[in-house]
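Hey, resending since the last one bounced:
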Amino acid sequence: FKPKPPPPPPPPPPAILTEPAPLISPEEQAKVVKSADDQEAEVRWQAIVFLDKMKVPAAFDVMFEKMKKDPDVDVRVKIIALLGQRGGQRLAEISQRLVAATRDPLPEIRIAALQALDALGDYSVGSAVTDCLKDPDERVKLQALKTLNSLQDKKAAMIEAERRRQEELRRKSE
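The structure tokens again:
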């Protein structure tokens, strides 16, 4: 006579959704996308901020388009700064778009793009940033050097953190 094995553990509870439910429907989101083409610069900017917060699939496409073609330089600079705070799965694409913005005719846009590349921390853009050292505007050259210095510092800090982590793992295994 064998005793019965204990019953299996209960299943884990369902996962809690970490993303809030959308505030508006897809149809209403489409209206917000259209607001990104409004005549008022502040309306366009607020529409873009909202699309970004809602993680609307079209948000990046709208931002990329407006970053290049919005008639208001301040809106373009704000969009570039916002893109500098993003990354994740779209890091390479964002970096590529920001590198393209470093060739914009307006120095304010080129400077904002360099600052956003610095904020992203993507080391692969080093040679593109170096190209900005040939820029005719001294402010752009200065920002290019600041960005290169910052990216180098970030890379050195990352390497040092990894070295310490490996050392800690080695100590724990002994």
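The chain has a mean pLDDT of 91.

Sorry for the duplicate.
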